Amino acid sequence: MAKYGSNKVGFFLIDGYDVLGVSTQITDEIEADIEETTSLGDDWAKHEYTDLRRAELSQEGYFDDATDSSHDALDAGIGVERVLCYNVTGNEIGQQFTGYSGALQSSYTKVASRGELHRANASYLGAGQVDEGVILHSHVSTEGDDTEDDAVDNETSSEDGVAYLQVSELEDCDSITVNIRESSGNGWSTLASFTAVESAPDSERIEIEGSIERYLAVSWSFTNAGA
Length: 227
What we know:
The protein has one helix spanning 70-75, and strands at residues 11-14, 17-18, 23-36, 47-61, 81-87, 96-111, 119-126, 130-134, 152-153, 158-167, 175-183, 189-193, 202-212, 215-223. It is mostly beta strands.
């Protein structure tokens, strides 16, 4: 068990938009839907879980009108389901992250106060599953092709899963194709492939059905070079 501080927040990505550098607070809340089931004659109130959960997330930060910064990320997002990922334990392969399959942006609030920098805040309601995952590739600038040298060892195989892709920028290429690779320890094969990304920011979440081998890694290929 380890304790982490703000310096270990590795990324906060909304549909590929990297807004970590202008974010100051992330609040993520998941609730169980509870219904009171108290009957006549009961001495104490009773409650039962309805088998439904709800997720709410909010972010606070600075207003920035630079290209692909907070204003671009949030201004057109009202009422839109976003693919959202964040990490609080370090932007490193093997670390944990949280992914929202559908974060419905319910608000975008701009705050201007005397003597302070302008703020840009947003809130989201869960419009789908919230996943806890493992980073297979750090959110960093990348060139060339990847190998399986930095594979994640999950210690055992599993059944079914999901995968998230967040691409914040593309340079000097037509597109990039990203694959999830798997191995039981005897050679590698492709487990799943994301749709080719032709422009950024962009994101995707895919569902994986069936068996998943113990070791996982990422491979990618650029069309006409790139980074």
